Amino acid sequence: MSTLEQLFRTTESLRETVSAEFASLDLSSLNFKPSPASWSILECLEHLNRYSRYYNPALAKAVAGHPAASCVESIGYSWLGKKSLEMVRPQNKKKYKTAKHMNPGNSALGRATVEEFLQHQRELLDLLQSAGQANLNKSAVPVEFFKLLHLRIGEALEFVVVHQERHVQQAVRVKQLLLEQAVA
Fold first, then answer.
1. Is the dihedral of CA 122, 23, 46, 176 positive or negative?
2. Is 150 helix (H, G, I), strand (E, B) or coil?
3. Looking at the whole model, is its pTM more than 0.85?
4. What sequence ranges are listed for the domain DinB-like (predicted)?
């Protein structure tokens, strides 16, 4: 299975997880925080929405602007791509401080946050399909917090999906803590 196919499947799975796990929760549950310093389910999703508002259009522009001369099966990784992916992988348990404008902590959020997340997932699925016709190894996606640096199209797509995976897992853990608290 190609990397793009795997990213597509992961994105579909994340969309299904968010729909299944959070659709039936009331607003109070969606805003539950295990501790004052941690994020609620909606804050996890809003953090991802903020990234998607930037990366989805940037990726769409890059994919459309850099067609592949031939099919590229594998993604090459730059040092920046490797480091970025290493930081956001769900297996990496180290916590990182997020940029202030990407931190949704203490935001007033509602169900629209979940709907926006699901819409971004639909856009990302379309992008992943289109990316099969793009030069995935073209350095064309400016990094959100420092636009002079660029990720390759393929590694930027992987970064977005892996980052989403990390925070959807975080949101699922928040739900689990909420359920455990309700039982106690």
1. negative
2. strand
3. yes
4. 12-171
Q: How far apart are CA 155 and CA 162, in angstroms?
A: 10
Q: What is the DSSP string of 96-107?
A: -PPPGGG--TT-
The correct CATH number of 3-183 out of 1.20.120.450, 3.40.30.10, 3.40.50.12780, 1.10.10.10 is: 1.20.120.450
Instruction: Give 99's contacts (C-beta < 8 A, 6+ positions apart).
Output: 144, 145
DSSP 111: T
- Main-chain dihedrals φ then ψ at residue 130, nearest 5 degrees: -65, -30
pLDDT in tens, the chain (184 residues): 789 999 999 999 999 999 999 988 999 999 999 999 999 999 999 999 999 999 999 999 999 988 876 666 678 899 989 999 999 999 988 888 888 888 888 888 999 999 999 999 999 999 999 998 889 998 889 898 887 789 999 999 999 999 999 999 999 999 999 988 877 6
**Distances in whole angstroms, Cα of residue 81 to Cα of each of 84, 139, 174:** 5, 10, 29
**Residue (of 152, 143, 159) closest to 75 by Cα position:** 152
